[in-house]
Structure prediction request, 279 residues.
Amino acid sequence: MRVKIVTDSVADIPSQIVQELGISIIPVLVRFGEETYRDGIDMTSDQFYERLVHSQVMPVTSVPSLDMFARTYARLAEETDEILAIMLSAKLSGLYNAALQSASLMESKCRIEVVDSKLAVMAQGFVVIEAARAARAGAGLDEILEIVNHNIPRADMRAALDTLEYLHRGGRIGKAQAFMGSVLKINPIITVKDGLVEPVNRVHSRAKAIDALYSFAASYSHIDGLAVEDAACPEEGDLLVERLSAIFPKERILRSRTTPVIGAHTGPGLLLVAVLGDK
Prediction:
């Protein structure tokens, strides 16, 4: 029986790939006041951003219950005796600890390994996708763990934001705090490094921010995976895909919308590029 792969909804993996590779997704919870939604299930991205702009109540996110993890493990344990969970950076969320704790409570003989990706969004997603492809090809758990550990440092992302205010409010701003309080209108460029949000650059126009995303991808000598994501700015995302097709086959560029849990921390206007490759 082949290894089953689990991840969280922050990985933003396109739904068709999730279905094709049989990846199990643990949805993060998004709350508006007393209302709770499962990320990517109970509310679409369009519905979320519409509400985010007009709501007087700011959304918050939370880790799902240990029972949700346990039920996922139990379901998969009926199909396999090896499960690998690849989670959002433990420095950004309690998802990794919840996945680990739930695994330790399982009474099944199924072997469950939990990995802290130290990544987020489609940088994390690429590590998950490659693990799932290896599982589909028949690789065992130890072999897949080697593939994961090889790919984690090969995955990276750059994101352009309209504002850092949402990251600041949610406590996920990390070293990008240094960009707060600028008297000038800036477009911050951020990444996730060693599991934390870090600033990369700040530019003074959206066009220059998009140039920076393109230059980041173009700096790679070899690319195995390329993705473009947006939060309520699909036109810009589509134009960036067209531009990136000069350095990578357009049909292989993954196009994704950031799920509501990402939008709760970044706000609308996020545009990002994720790469799996070598410099």
